[in-house]
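Colleagues,

Please find the record for the two-part complex below.
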Amino acid sequence: MSDVLERVKKMVVEHLDAEEAKVTNNAHFIDDLGADSLDTVELVMAFEEEFDIEIPDDAAEHIQTVGDAVKFISEKVG
Amino acid sequence: MFDLTGKRALVTGATGGLGGEIARLLHKQGAHVALSGTRAEKLEGLAAELGERVAVTPCNLSDGEAVDALPAQAAEALGGPLDILVANAGITRDGLLMRMKQADFDDVIRINLESYFRLTKACLRPMMKARSGRIIGITSIVGVTGNPGQTNYAASKAGMIGFSKSLAQEVASRGITVNCIAPGFIRSPMTDALNDAQKEATLSRIPAAKLGEGADIAAGALYLASDEAAYVTGQTLHINGGMAMI
């Protein structure tokens, strides 16, 4: 879990060019980290590649915060 | 100017007159080009003419799954992700609406419009990553002006224009441009077969008083594919000798 969290945080910082301190578990990609809708699509695509998983569209819609992503990915990769 | 050295392009409908000319010109400007179409022999002939930096990737555009897979196949054959998509393939099934069969409508929409959706979608991911890309849809003047006997074809071509404008807005911030070219009357085996009276009637509608050539369209495609056209997106470039000024 903590490994996933660290990797997700690092990716979010890189992709959104966000301040590391702001990338907390509750940080909302769009409201807090300045992402646009296309950024979130790209982030989901990047998660898929990084963790070698499939994130279906209906699940992707619900991944709106760093914590959402970590939770979903952790469940997938076990 | 208009140097495409190192760029990778997929041209569909490369067996046709327009597609062939577009492929030739992009190749001449340095691009690696994947030629797609239904007639493999004809594609091989064009590939042999072009020599290096070319791949042949036949595809039946009425087969959705095959269309989805085409950009990845082309990228693999060319040795890297695509920079340029020229969606040029299209069919006609002309007839007055009163007489038009459902299949004639469905086939035209599937091959002209749905394949454009599938091809662009499959190209987007690598282009998003690269933060650059050129999507060029070859539509038609009739998509804007209409033409009796072509309700299905005109709808598919108008659909490409609306699609392109929407997608252009979605991906502009990622350095990807999406534009259409709308040819007017272009010389082809079909126009060559017109009789003198038909030719005269056609030419009377064209201020330039002559038919367009494939090369006229290819030049437009090259411009839109180039780095120089980075600030042009969501547009339809009309190349028609003045036949319609829109």
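Chain A has a mean pLDDT of 91.

Comments are welcome before we finalize the supplementary table.
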